[in-house]
Specification:
This protein is α+β, with helices and mostly antiparallel strands. It has one domain: Single Sheet (N-terminal domain of TfIIb). The protein contains one helix and five strands. Bound molecules: zinc ion (ZN). Zinc ion binds next to loops.
Length: about 80
């Protein structure tokens, strides 16, 4: 699993951090939590597979999303994979 490799890489870079909360860069900008200004996030992948998505023709709703969760307050960023 690619995500497992990514996580082990994060652990290697930050052996003291458990769970791995890392700085995240998106579109050339460092991600900063809009709620608490924290800059460390842990990541998870979510399948945007919602019931009724096909009925409403929401093709984006069946895509994978990457969540970056603020390690301080729990605010969740959502990034849809293209
Ligand atoms: Zn936060």
């Amino acid at each position: 699993m690619a995500i497992a490799i990514l996580w082990s890489a994060c652990r290697t870079m930050n052996p003291m951090t458990t769970p791995p909360a890392v700085e995240v860069t998106r579109a050339g900008k460092k991600l900063v939590c809009p709620v608490c200004n924290h800059d460390r996030f842990w990541a998870r992948q979510t399948l945007m597979n919602t019931r009724g998505a096909t009925f409403f023709n929401l093709d984006w709703a069946n895509k994978k999303a990457t969540n970056h969760v603020c390690d301080s307050c729990g605010y969740v960023f959502w990034f849809l994979e293209k």
